[in-house]
Amino acid sequence: MPTSRRMLLKNAAAAAAAINLDWTRARAEAETVRLGVIYDLTGPFAAGGSVASSVGTQIAIDLVNEKGGVGGKYKIVPVAADSQSKPDVAINEAERLISQEKIDIINGIYASSHAVPLSSKVEQQKKILWITTAVATAVFKDKNLHYVFRAQIHSDQYGQAFASFLTEHAKEKLGIEPKDVKIALIHEDGPYGVGVAAADEAYSKQAGLQIVLKEGYSAAAPDLSVLVTKIKRSRADVISHAGYNPDITLLLRQARENGLHFQMLFGNGAGYSQLDKLRTSFGADIDNFCNIDPVPAQLLDPAKLAPGIGDLTKTMVERYKAKTGATDVPPHCSMGFNQTWVLLNNVLPVAKEKYGGFDPEAVRKAALDVDIPPGGTIQGYGVKFFPPDTPLSGQNERSTPVVMQNAGEHISVVWPTNIRTQEPVFPLPKSSVYAT
Fold this sequence. Notes:
This protein is α/β, with parallel strands linked by helices and 436 residues long. The chain has helices at residues 2-30, 44-66, 87-99, 112-124, 156-174, 191-207, 225-234, 245-257, 275-282, 309-324, 331-355, 360-369; strands at 32-39, 75-82, 105-108, 128-131, 148-150, 182-188, 210-217, 238-242, 264-267, 290-293, 402-407, 410-415. Strands 7-6-8-9-10-11-12 form a 7-stranded mixed beta sheet, with helices on both faces. Strands 2-1-3-4-5 form a 5-stranded parallel beta sheet, with helices on both faces. Helix 3 (87-99) runs parallel beside helix 4 (112-124) and helix 11 crosses helix 12. The radius of gyration is 24 Å and the shape is globular. The termini are far apart. The model is unreliable at 21-29 (pLDDT under 50).
């Protein structure tokens, strides 16, 4: 009998321990938020800005967790996925995160060619897709999405910035009327490039600028010399190029080899925002090229932003440099950080406190409540999402890009004029190998 009693007590203790372990595990899960994070960590997009975006996202997660997590209570547990610069892998990884990892919120996405199919897939399953970096307007336009959100700018805004800059500066800088400025629009043929080129075309025509060439190509093309010849024959004054790092490198190399000259080249984010990569390949050849993209946060005047934003930017910059060893912090870091920061600080706390949890419905409602005025984020713009049943539902209506210029080893803002940090150098100086 004593032996039976000891066995009974032992079994009871084991059962109690198991219950306690289950309770502890359940409590731990209840006190965390599992966040799917998808970026291209390998493949050509990795060096084109995707890794920089992922580092920015991780810095935002680290800072929130160091303060106790969302609302000071719920730690973020990132579940990372590598989309490998391939749309089919991105779709498969999103499906794995949702069905196997039971993730309700997916954050990230660098390439628009991934964002377009992913947005419909995630929307169908009524999970949250929080896009940090991909810009194609086609992700949202006339889709009436309810579970997909993007605080980032969209590709139509690249065209607005491009046409506005030329309209403002053609007469003063080039000595000709805007209607006499000849433009070549070249682009990779995925959703990103097509979207930017379409916006460039629409807003350039609206401004009366003269489009002499519009040409797409595969980002994986092994030779772009025929395209270079077409640009030469068009006698374009200004080139607008939407491309990724590998094809930009190929185009610029063949442009120099074939004697292509122009008055200015405008990049449109992606590979053109990876200044350190371009400088490694081309050195001073890329000096004074312009680039349209969301601003790298460190270029803004903190005095013109909400209190505390300047300190937040400083922390992000310090951590990025420490993590990567980079001397210059690309715009993609700010994109990954900024959009993730908004999700973790302006959406998830409201989802929990006001709508009762971190489930997709609660997060969706909380996102639509976001109302950050201009100057309230590290990239200068505010955040307010277009509501359902509008042409761009889910897109941030307050996002804005800037025109930047490669000023030696660093980047300067040259448009809009009210926040510029340098007078634009336009046209390219005669010292440039590409100058007309």
